[in-house]
Design a protein that fits this description.
Length: 185
């Protein structure tokens, strides 16, 4: 079996390598179209499915894995920040509070497509203005939903659920979905 990860994220590549020895990386390039009328869980799955489907069109003999991570705070979906100011605003808003991280995962072969999501509750530490400025100046928030990485020290106080989900690829769920597709291929 040949596998393709439909993501340019180095974090997703690293996590997928925990369960697959060999796979190609072919990022989806189409603009993400977010349907804001969907529940957040359905939104994450829909985005993952569209990335997977796009890459599958050029890789129909392979198993393609697509995913998308969103952060939800008070029923508002937080994506990647547009700029430094938005990153600062998001981090101040999440400081000391709880939110959810939802990652949709889609695995597709020529015979089968499965889609599911993982959801993790995350509570932030109380972040000082100085910490936020230094964190944003370091550049880490700019390519991450919710403007942070759980793997970056000092941001997250506690989480309930999958750590790898918050990083961007829920490993246990992804492994289960791959096995489901292989079984039916």
């Amino acid at each position: 079996m040949k596998y393709v990860l439909a993501s340019a994220s180095p974090r997703r590549r690293e996590l997928l390598s925990q369960i697959l020895e060999n796979f190609e990386v072919v990022p989806a390039v189409a603009e993400e179209k977010v349907n804001l009328s969907l529940f957040p869980e359905n939104m994450a799955c829909s985005l993952a499915e569209s990335k997977c489907d796009e890459v599958f069109l050029n890789n129909p003999e392979k198993i393609v894995i697509g995913c998308d991570t969103i952060v939800v705070f008070k029923n508002e979906v937080l994506g990647k920040p547009k700029d430094r100011e938005e990153a600062v605003k998001t981090l101040k808003m999440l400081s000391g509070k709880t939110h959810y991280v939802i990652t949709g995962v889609c695995v597709r072969s020529k015979n089968r497509k499965v889609v599911d999501f993982d959801k993790t509750e995350v509570k932030f530490n109380v972040l000082t203005d100085e910490f936020i400025q230094n964190y944003v100046n370091g550049g880490s928030p700019m390519d991450k939903a919710g403007s942070y990485g759980i793997q970056d020290g000092g941001v997250v106080n506690v989480y309930y659920g999958s750590y790898t989900n918050v990083v961007g690829l829920p490993v246990a769920l992804t492994k289960k979905l791959i096995e489901e597709v292989i079984k039916n291929s």
